[in-house]
Amino acid sequence: MSDLLTIAIYALAALFGAVLLLTGAGIVVHWGHRRERGLLPFVFYGVILTAGLGTVLSGRNLFLPADFISGGIEGKHMLVVWVQRFTSIFMLIVSFERIMARVLAHGKKQPFPKPLLIGFCTLYVSNLVLPALFGAHRGLSHEYIYPLVTGCAALLVVASEARSITSVLRNALFVFLLVGVVLVPIRPELVLSKDYEGFIPGLSLRFAGIAPGPNALGPLCAVFMFCLLDAPFKSKFINFIAWPVAVLSFVLAQSKSSWIAFLISLSVILFYRYREGLKSLWNGKNTVVAIASIYGVLIGACAVFVLVMFSDIGDKLSGFLHSRAGADLMSLTGRDQIWAIALYEWKQHPIFGYGLSIWDVEFRIKIGLPAALHAHNQLYQSLCSAGTVGAAGLLVYVALLFRYAVSTARASKGLTLAVFALIIVRAISEVPFSLTGFGTEQLMHVLLLMLIAAYHVPSRARHAGYPMRLHSTHPYGA
Hints:
Blueprint: H1 2-32, H2 43-56, H3 66-71, H4 78-104, H5 114-134, H6 145-154, H7 162-186, H8 188-191, E1 192-193, E2 206-207, H9 214-230, H10 236-252, H11 256-273, H12 275-281, H13 287-310, H14 313-321, H15 324-330, H16 335-348, H17 361-367, H18 378-407, H19 415-426, H20 440-455, H21 459-464
Antiparallel strand pairs: 1-2
């Protein structure tokens, strides 16, 4: 009897959810069918809220030994579960609104990157659908529908939404980072880890904020700073607070991969923002700049040569490589072992891979690596979970993504190419193109798709008269 009652309750809950989803979709479609801008950027609020709330309510203690922390397999707080559910429903509703707005739109429509949409669907089919159906360990989940709908909707945003995209994400990340800083004196064990051997001399603390970890905080800080460059707060006082919070959080996170990715991405943004000035310096007539640059390179090379020849840098380097931090660097913090397991599983299941359940709790216990939540490399992740088919789909998609990031770099002042570079460097040690969920990793992927779509207006479309309102004011921004 109790089993029947439980089934009836779940059935009623499913029915209520379906009715709520259809009603919400109908309302937003009616609201937005005559409006060019949609509500899709507001998804960032829900994703950031879920991630931050999940950490705050997790009872995390970073003062404990790393092995003890990583070995724990804990469930989510019920409040986080419900916030995530409502975020998922909202994500489906606003994504459906964007898709229907494109279908029902009258008059001129902004061209969207169709090859990239096809590439995204290829990634989805090869890395999710095929391994779920034909992998060695098959399985389907309702969560697999969210990335497809959201990704397709992200490629349908229009030019006038460009500023609102970065404004909304800027607002969400500012609160996210600020809460992490405020919690330092209140709950230091939640946001700080001790006894860390990093690259900053004398600093044994590592800041994680309310992100899943320091390596997850680093790219979020970088994206926040890019958003501040693209869409500063209207209040100078808020900007005065935002920049130190971002820089300090980024530095104290001590995420080496994020530092490298940020320097590459920042150079891209600076190049596209000041490219006209650089052209004037290198126009072939300004011989002083050319000669000074050549001499600067030669002096720098000589300085490095003298440093290597007449200093004990070799002994210091050897000492570092024999330290714990050096060992972590050489093995990429033990990721070489995880990569070996990923390659082994690919060789065992070469076509469609192990399946999407790889790296679940059962698999991690079996291999004795409870902290290995994924392959810690996007290509290895595709190989082991989706096989050769998945890896091929990934490479095709990344090539298309790079093409459109480059083609929209000038219009976005380098923002699209900078975010692409950040994701690609991130893909060396993480899985930013994962489609089995939606968190802070997937947030940057969707951000890039939105920005490419917003700035993708081919020259023929401009000549045809499509309105270009890339930086119009919008109530989303503060």
